[in-house]
Design a protein that fits this description.
heterodimer; A: 430 residues; mainly alpha; Cytochrome-c3 Hydrogenase, chain B; 2 domains; three-stranded antiparallel sheet; 17 helices; B: 170 residues; alpha/beta; Beta Polymerase, domain 2; two-stranded parallel sheet; 3 helices; 7 strands; elongated
């Protein structure tokens, strides 16, 4: 069979133009993989649709792969199944009102998204954030990073064949959820950060829980290293799979652990330290191999560094307020709201119009989320709503890399490579 | 407004005003970042120049915006990064409302592929020379560009044909 006209073989029921477009684009894709046997006597060529409802694709990701036997000749990605138009919604919300939507973008590390939005708005409106709030944000961001990497570890190892691992990483994740429950009052979508600080200070029991976690977690990490680092099956599944060279990673716009595993140590916490990352010591783990195994090592080491950052934060954290004491810029504390008229008026004003950055200003602020560079670009028109808010989502950029590195892999490795890229569709699809 | 430029960005501004003085429109700063606005028809050359001469090898994002003005309605912002000095530079172009077409920069950075597709999907800005310019989030059958300001927040009923949800019927 010659796959010259894939379109004649498929008969889509709906979104006809869309479906035909994507098959056409697969046909047209240029690939450097050599034609193995042009005659194809065994008729081994086929087009495989994976997803969008595939359990191993980490959400609603659809891959269209052209196979020859077990080899992927070329592949295309179709995303957008989780598109909710959050950028459009943002234009119709106040800055603070939009924050719960950011929780639902990268839902595996909501705290990083909250901080990214708040930091961008604070930069735009020149809001001073108290010292203690910075440290609270850093601690929670690092916890969220560990939580996100734990999910990646569990699912990626499960994709490679070890089911029980998933349970162990989820046990640790559960502890982080309990911490967030204590800190923010929510387990999953925390929305704890506020423009100008954070919603509430740590309670004593929250501090105790975090410290206990920080003390016990390195031992778990060590155990996992012991189990996987020299595991024959795990290494065979991951070594040399989905290889991405440094030049290609830069050209394709990879970010986060994917880029760092390819040998380029770009980390927003170092490049442009936000919060108080310039006052803590940590390393940016980097590997040169660029394959899936390198991504595993980078993420594992990142978790260890996160623990280090949290420990230093506790040493350096000063006492004091957790939110800016300026009624024009941040919500007043609840004590004020309940017991004074002005407090209530200010609270109402903040909810109604919110913070109004100067007109015509533009800001781009990036934080290092677990998936990579998460940036918010905001244009202000002087009202309480952003004129334009653009999210630079790391998963979106890494998925574009996936489209290119799948060419030439085996079909059985697809799932492992997706696991190694670690996309979150909520973020990629916006 | 005076500009506070560091060495790299000063070199960029000097280089652009020497080599591309016709297409350089304005340079300004907002919240720590430098924005350079150039003529739309020179964006490909400017990007090539920035990549080759000033080491802006990393394209972080392409941002489309709708200014909702009668002339030069759409804006496309290229968020570039110099990885050697770790400086960020925003390059802007403006496009007319009628038939907004920009040159594609996919030949400079492959990563522009999806980013340009997103700008096209949301604003209808077409990129000339893009190898695979299709919508990225919405299906091809969708006729509107949702991030344009005139598109209602609630959407347009009937604009998207949904699959039949009851089984065994056509």
């Amino acid at each position: 069979m010659k796959l010259k006209d894939i379109n004649s073989k498929v008969d889509p029921k709906f979104f006809k133009e869309h479906q035909q477009g994507i098959y056409q684009s697969l046909e047209d894709k240029h690939t450097t993989i050599e034609e193995i046997d042009a005659a194809d006597p065994l008729n081994a060529k086929m087009v495989l649709n994976m997803g969008p409802q595939h359990p191993a694709t980490h959400g609603v990701l659809r891959l269209i792969l052209q196979l020859r036997g077990e080899l992927i000749e070329k592949g295309k990605l179709d995303i957008g199944y989780l598109h909710r138009g959050v950028e459009k919604i943002a234009e119709n919300k106040t800055y603070q009102e939009f924050m719960p939507y950011t929780d639902r973008m990268d839902y595996l590390s909501p705290y990083n998204n909250n901080v990214a939005l708040c930091a961008a708005v604070e930069k735009l409106a020149e809001v001073e954030v108290p010292e203690r709030a910075h440290y609270i944000r850093m601690i929670c961001c690092e916890l969220a990073r560990i939580s996100s990497h734990l999910l990646w570890l569990g699912t990626m190892v499960m994709d490679a064949g070890a089911i029980s691992f998933f349970i162990w990483t989820f046990r640790e994740r559960e502890k982080i959820y309990d911490i967030f429950d204590e800190v923010a009052g929510h387990r999953f979508t925390v929305s704890h950060s506020r423009i100008g600080g954070v919603a509430s200070d740590f309670t004593d029991s929250a501090v105790a829980r975090i410290k206990e976690f920080v003390q016990k977690f390195p031992q778990e990490l060590k155990d996992w290293h012991k189990l996987l680092d020299r595991n024959r099956i795990f290494i065979d599944r991951n070594e040399g799979v989905g290889t991405l060279s440094t030049e290609r990673a830069l050209d394709l716009g990879a970010t986060g652990p994917v880029l760092r595993a390819s040998g380029y140590g770009v980390d927003q916490r170092i490049i442009k330290p936000y919060a108080r990352y310039d006052e803590v010591e940590f390393e940016v783990p980097t590997r040169l191999e660029g394959d899936n195994l390198a991504r595993y090592f980078v993420r594992m080491e990142e978790m260890r560094e996160s623990i280090r950052i949290i420990q230093q934060c506790f040493d350096k954290m000063p006492k004091g307020p957790v939110r800016a004491n300026n009624a024009k810029q941040a919500y007043p504390s609840k004590d004020e709201v309940y017991y004074s008229m002005e407090g209530m008026i200010h609270d109402f004003m903040m909810t109604d119009t919110g913070i109004c950055p100067p007109a015509g200003k533009e800001v781009y602020h990036a934080v290092e989320s677990p998936k990579g560079e998460l940036g918010y670009f905001i244009q202000s028109d002087g009202t309480g709503h952003p004129w334009r808010l653009k999210v630079n989502a790391p998963s979106f950029r890494n998925l574009q890399v996936l489209e290119h590195i799948l060419d030439g892999e085996m079909v059985a490795d697809t799932v492992v490579v997706i696991g190694g890229i670690d996309p979150v569709m909520g973020e990629a699809d916006k | 407004m005076s500009l506070e430029l560091n060495e790299t960005l000063q070199a960029v501004v000097d280089g652009l005003s020497n080599n591309y003085s016709d297409s350089l429109i304005e340079v300004y700063q907002s919240c720590d970042h430098t924005y350079i606005r150039v003529e739309a028809n020179s964006i490909l050359n400017v990007c090539k120049y920035l990549k080759e001469e000033h080491h802006f090898i990393f394209l972080c994002d392409i941002i489309g915006t709708d200014r909702y003005t009668s002339d030069e309605r759409f804006e496309v912002i290229y968020n570039l990064m110099n990885l050697r000095t770790q400086d960020r530079l925003m390059v802007k172009i403006r496009l007319e409302e009628k038939n907004p077409v920009a040159q594609s920069v996919t030949s400079v950075w492959t990563s522009a592929g999806w980013m340009e597709r997103e700008a096209y999907d949301m604003y209808g800005v077409r990129f000339e020379g893009h190898p695979d310019l299709r919508r990225i989030y919405l299906p091809e059958d969708f006729e509107y560009f949702p991030l344009r300001k005139e598109f209602p927040l609630l959407g347009i009923p009937g604009s998207i044909e949904l699959p039949n949800t009851t089984p065994d019927t056509e």
